Structure formats: structure tokens, C-alpha cells
Amino acid sequence: MASMPVTVDRAEKFEKVCGILNRFARRPSGLIPILQAIQHEYLYLPEEILTYVATSLDVPPARVFGVATFYAHFALEPKGKHVIRICDGTACHVKQSLPVLEALHAALGTSEKSKTTADMLFTVETVACLGACGLAPVIVIDEQVYGQVTPERAVGLLKEIKAQEALLATSSAPLAEQLSAEECHD
Ligand code: FES
After folding, report:
1. pTM, entire model
2. Residue range(s) defining the domain that contains residue 28
3. Distance 171 CA to ligand 1 centre (A)
4. Pocket test for ligand 1, best of 94, 138, 145 (most atoms within 8 A of CB)
5. For the segment 39-58, what is each residue's pLDDT rounded down to a tens digit?
6. CB of 121 within 8 A of CB of 80?
7. How would you class 38 by CB atoms within 10 Å of its CB: exposed for 0-12, middle for 13-18, buried for 19 or more?
């Protein structure tokens, strides 16, 4: 599972990127896996880091930004820990995907313009046909596909994730304390 977005200071941020670049021997041919690893770490590709990657690999920034914007998989804006994709293709639209989307926005306080919750836990996106039209309306949460979703079912899934997160927050507190006490050194 991807890690939670965290607020890190600038030095720590670049230290992590250096580690990723070193893992791929700073080879320009490793650009895509490098960007994947950075996105896995930060859940998106911060602009300043893309510039840093270009300098480190000695390639034009336009190439790095070109790759980052070409693949839909890469995000240039921060996303929530859990990404919910709602299909708005024709079959799903006909089978009432819009009420599902509205129910999710209402439950999360998100909107078409503001897709990510303030706590960075959820991002709600609409996407074109997911290729599972027989299951319409379809939503995908963190790569898990759910078919024939109703607004009630969608909100129920949110509640399940929130309950898991609450549990995780409780059980991981001692570990977090331990990690901060034991600082990481190379
Ligand atoms: S239209 Fe939604 S999966 Fe095809």
C-alpha cells in the first residue's frame, strides 16, 4: 500500500529522491521507474522534484515533464491516500453513475473542482470507460473494482475505509513513536 502523504522538510524530501535516483544508478533510461518510485513515495510528482530529477539525470526538463504528463498514471497534483475513480462512460452514465458521484462528493465534502479531502485521505475522480461496462455503474477504489454500485453502497465503502484508517491510526501510534525516536541513518 502507498504511504500516507507526509509533510517533510526540503532536505528530507530531496534525500529521499537521491535514494531513489541512486537505486536506478542515475541512468536516464530509468526515468519511468524513477518517476514511479517518486510518485509511490509522495503520491504525486512535485514540480520541484521533477526539475531536480532532470538535473540529476542530465536530461532536459522538457523530457521529464513530457513523460510525467504523457502517462495518465502520473499525477502532478497531490492526491489522497485512497483514490476513488468513478466511471462516467456511456454505459455507467446510463446506469446512474452520476448519483453515485454526487453521494461520494456529499459524504466527503469534495466537488468537481476540489477532488481531494482536506485530510488527504480521499481523492474522487471521474474517468472514461473502465472496460467493465457489464458491471455498470463501476467504481474503482485503490485498484479494487466494484460493480453495480449504488450511492448507498459507495458511501458504505467509504465508511469501511474510514473505519480501517481509524484502526490503523490507533494501532500504528506506538510504532510511529518508536520510529521517530530511532531516526534513520545511512
Ligand atoms: S462505461 Fe463504465 S465501464 Fe464502460
Report:
1. 0.68
2. 10-70
3. 38
4. 138
5. 988 888 999 999 999 999 99
6. yes
7. buried
